[in-house]
Amino acid sequence: MTVELLSNYYYYLKEKKAEGKKIIAHMAHDNLPEELIDAAGFVPLNMIFAGNDELMNSSHDYLPPSTCSFAQSCIGLFSEKPNNFNFLELIDYFIVSNHCVSDICASEIITKYFSIPRLNFYMSYTLSENALKYYELELKDLKNQLEKIKGSEIKEENLNESIKRYNNFKKKLLEVNNLEIKGKTKLEIFQKAMLYGPDFLPELDTIIQNSQPQRSNNLKELILTGCSIFINDYLIDLIEESGGNIVFFDTWIGDNYFSQIFDDAILNSKENPYDLLLYRYRNNVGGDHMVPEYLENKVTKLEKIFQNYKKKTGKPLGVINHIIKFCDHISINSAFLKEKLQEKKIPILNLERDYSRANRGQLSTRIEAFIEMM
Length: 374
Ligand code: SF4
Description:
41% of the residues are buried. This protein folds into 2 domains: 2-152, Rossmann fold; 215-373, 3-Layer(aba) Sandwich (Rossmann fold), CATH 3.40.50. It is α/β, with parallel strands linked by helices. 53% of the residues lie in helices and 12% in strands. The longest helix is centred in the middle third of the chain and has 22 residues, at 129-150. Strand 1, helix 2 (34-39) and strand 2 (43-46) form a beta-alpha-beta unit. Iron/sulfur cluster (SF4) binds next to helix 4, helix 5 and helix 15.
């Protein structure tokens, strides 16, 4: 699937470039307004490819191995030759943002050593009035940077249009989220959707219409939280082979992305589209590491999913907290998350790993033991 997906994506981006569109790549996990890039007539490219030794190890000329494996892999995407990611040659600009230290370092290295012009977008990840003002300034600054490339103004009506397009797209992903299909199938749909954006809507409609329930009576049902599973990663296969099935992806490739939607009343109540983006920032209380109370909000959210699922199906869910090695903010919080969920009698496994295949056996044993214990 991956080779075909990447090859088709190359031709998709090529067509977009032929239409005169610029490709804007970014590693940001949330709060980055893809709609603004879309409204400028450009294509946002989510860097969601990682999961094997080769990409991870190809970065070591640039970053020490004590950087998170995902950030290492993002650099590996550019330094490994040859590779399956030839669409990266089509990138025109790369956004440097500050989701975490690894994000900044990897983005800066990619722009500097692989000669990709950079755009900047920073935020405070704090929910306060001053943070909101700062976010507004950054939105305007990103708008100015995009307008400079475009050579003309980004009209508010175009931004409004893009916000609606993305909103409908994310609502459709929420429908996919509710389908009774295997976790791997669901994840592949989310990954593909995040590459193609709202252009993927017709395919999503077809998927939903043709979807048949895939029963998994012999598998234990799970929530995945923490770090995302990226394109090229074997983890989802490993979980299913070990007897688990992810029914809810509480990760950036998953709920954190498509739950950021506006209801119609909000959408129609704000004339200025930037107010909508500010509204979303203000309400992103469960966004990765938003201060304050991100962790408390996460515990509440996971408990709600657990209870609702139990009520609906009579079955308990287990939680796998996926921690990519050296991902500081997920690993720092993992002990607290474990303690709080265990207090609520919700089984949780903190699964820390890098992408090396040598760990496969050990990971599989840990997942199997957890599932057995459930
Ligand atoms: S996986 Fe963690 S450390 Fe790595 S880029 Fe994402 S948030 Fe940052």
